[in-house]
User: Fold this.
Amino acid sequence: VLRVFETVDAILIAATPCTAPLIGQKTMLLAGNEVPVRPSMGILTQPISFIGLPVVAVPVAKAGLPIGVQIVTAPWREDLALRIAAHLEAQGIAAARPPQEAAEWT
Assistant:
C-alpha cells in the first residue's frame, strides 16, 4: 500500500457506501440487501483506519444528500490530508450542511 505514495501524494476513495441516509432512517438498501444504517455507513473507513494511514473524510455533494470521500495520505502527512480537505472546501466541492428534517430532503 505504501508504494503507491511513491507516485501520488494522496488517494481519494469513498468513505460511505451510499449517500447520507435520512434523519431517523434505520435501514437502507446496499447491494440489494436491506442492512442497518449505522454499522454500514462506516464500513469503508475501517480498512484505512486499521492500517494507520492519515485520513480526512469530507462530505461531497453537488445537489441533494452528500456522499463521504476519504483523503488518504502517506504516513506522517496529516498536514497534506488537511490541506487537500481545506482546498476542496474552499472550492465548494466539500461542504458540511447542518442536518435537516427528513421531509426537507425529499
In short: The mean pLDDT is 86. The longest strand covers residues 67-73. The two ends are 40 Å apart (CA to CA). The chain has one domain: 2-98.
